[in-house]
Amino acid sequence: MSNKETRILLIEDEPSLIFTLRDTLENEGYIVIVCEDGEEAVGLAQKNKPDIIILDIMLPGKNGYEICQELRALKFTIPIIILTAKNQELDKVKGLDIGADDYITKPFGVKELLARIQARLRRTGTYSSSNNIDLLQLGATKIDLLESKVIFGDGRRNELTARETELIKYLLEAGGEPVSRDELLEKVWRYEYSTNTRTVDVHISKLRAKIESLPDEPRHLITLHGVGYLLKTY
Ligand code: CA
């Protein structure tokens, strides 16, 4: 999977955290722009056009809430993930209220932040610039990933749910390699509560019924027992 040319604006003033995050994110292939001063944040966002913003709350100059509100007022629609050291529920709610997409409470695990970033980017379609396929051909069947529609060779049509489309996209990104149920749970369902690997199986069955000409003899959405699922595009 490629994070090529995905730009992250990190608005944070704590040197040790900047160091760790920059290092981790750059290792993942992201381009990281650091802003340590609240006053400069909005200007830097306008200038650098990031794909996602990671925003601390307590900053010199201007706080994260104000920055978030200003960005939204300026019609910045990119995902904003708020980092907050304050553990109070009120602050979290406030964070989302002002137009943030997600928040994470310090101290946090870098892996968790990465998962959140990837989930947000995938949602906005910037996660994988290498696999921006809008129309997928599976034999005689076409899948319009933009419109979430399936069009069979004989003209029959099915509608896909957003999750089903996302599931196809994720399997497509794996490039024909099998993906485990756990990975699908983590990456497509994003740690939502009350989900388990059975959820994945149920969705795969439903999806199979929508995209396979003969769902009982699937040719594209394949189960590899004990491994997971894969999407065969040929
Ligand atoms: Ca801070």
Structure, explained:
- The protein is α/β, with parallel strands linked by helices and 234 residues long.
- The protein folds into 2 domains: 121 residues, 3-Layer(aba) Sandwich (Rossmann fold); 97 residues, Winged helix-like DNA-binding domain superfamily/Winged helix DNA-binding domain (Arc Repressor Mutant, subunit A, Orthogonal Bundle).
- It has 8 helices and 11 strands.
- Strands 2-1-3-4-5 form a 5-stranded parallel beta sheet, sandwiched between helices.
- The radius of gyration is 20 Å and the shape is elongated.
- The two termini are 20 Å apart.
- The chain binds calcium ion.
Task: Summarize this entry quickly.
With 234 residues, this protein is an alpha/beta fold. The protein has helices spanning 15-27, 38-48, 64-73, 89-97, 110-123, 162-173, 181-187, 197-211; strands at 7-11, 31-35, 52-56, 80-84, 102-105, 135-138, 141-144, 149-151, 157-159, 221-224, 228-231.
Break the fold down into its secondary structure elements and pairings.
Layout lengths: L6 E5 L3 H13 L3 E5 L2 H11 L3 E5 L7 H10 L6 E5 L4 H9 L4 E4 L4 H14 L11 E4 L2 E4 L4 E3 L5 E3 L2 H12 L7 H7 L9 H15 L9 E4 L3 E4 L3
Parallel strand pairs: 1-2, 1-3, 3-4, 4-5
Antiparallel strand pairs: 6-7, 7-8, 8-9, 10-11
Helix pairs in contact: 2-3, 7-8
Bound molecules: calcium ion.
Ligand catalogue = calcium ion
Largest sheet: 5 strands, parallel
Strand order of the largest sheet: 2-1-3-4-5
Uncertain segments: 126-131
Beta content: 15-25%
Q: Report helical residue fraction.
A: 25-40%
- CATH homologous superfamily (4th level) name of the largest domain: Response regulator
Tell the overall outline. elongated
Tell me which CATH architecture of the largest domain applies here. Answer: 3-Layer(aba) Sandwich
CATH class of the largest domain: Alpha Beta
Number of discrete domains: 2
String of helices and strands: EHEHEHEHEHEEEEHHHEE
Q: Please report the distance between the alpha carbons of the first and last residues.
A: 20 Å
Q: Structural class of the secondary structure composition?
A: alpha/beta
Q: What is the overall pLDDT average?
A: 86
Per the CATH scheme, the topology name of the largest domain is Rossmann fold
Helix count, per DSSP? 8
Number of strands: 11
Taking all Cα atoms into account, the compactness measure Rg is 20 Å
